[in-house]
Amino acid sequence: MQFVLRISVECITMRERPRIQLPVQLYRHYDESNVLLYIGVARDAGNRYRQHLKSSAWAENSVRMTIELFPDRASALAAEANAVVNEKPLHNINHLEKLASITKLPAPFCQALRGEPTIMISARIPASLVDFINSECVRTGATRSELLVQALNLLKKQFT
Asked: Which of 40, 69, 97, 155 is deepest in the core (most CB within 10 A)?
C-alpha cells in the first residue's frame, strides 16, 4: 500500500516558509474477507502501517486501508475511540477506559468482556491469592486461565 500527499508551497526564502498543518488521519485496516483488523490515528498512515508491519502480527493480513481526515489530533482521537468501541476491530486493545465508561466496569475487565478477540491479560497477583488459585486448580482440575475466566464471568453477571 502506498499513499502520497503532495503539497506545493512557493516561498522566497526558508524563513518565509509557511507552517503547514497537515490533517490527522484516522485509518482502518481490513483483511481479504473485509474483516476490520485495526483502527488507528497518525499523521502519516502509510508510514504507521510500515511500523505495524515490523511490530504487529495482524499487519501482514491487511489488504485494504481506508483513511478519514481530521483537522486536529483531538477530534481524530475522539473519532478513533468511538470507532473502536462501536466497530470492535479484532486487534485494538486501547480505549478500554471509553468502554469502561459505557459498561460501568473497570477498564481491565472490559478487555476480557468484549468477547473478541481473546486477549492475554497480565496482572500482579498477591502470593496468598496465587496459592488459593493453585489449590483450586488442583481441586477442580481447571487451569489458572479457566478459573480466572470463570471469575470474570461471575463479575460480569454482577455488573450487567
From this structure: 40
CA-CA-CA-CA torsion sign (142, 146, 149, 150): negative
* Structure confidence by residue, pLDDT tens digits, 60-116: 999 999 999 998 888 888 888 788 878 888 888 655 555 555 455 555 555 555 544
Burial of 37 (0-12, 13-18, 19+ CB in 10 A): buried
**Nine-digit cell string for 86:** 462501536
CA distance 96 to 108: 7
**Cα dist from 81 to 5, 8, 87, whole Å:** 25, 33, 10
Q: Which domains does the chain have, with CATH numbers?
A: 21-92 (3.40.1440.10)
End-to-end CA distance of the chain, in Å?
Answer: 43
Residues 120, 121, 127, 129: is their CA dihedral positive or negative? Answer: negative
**Overall pTM surpassing 0.90 (yes/no):** no
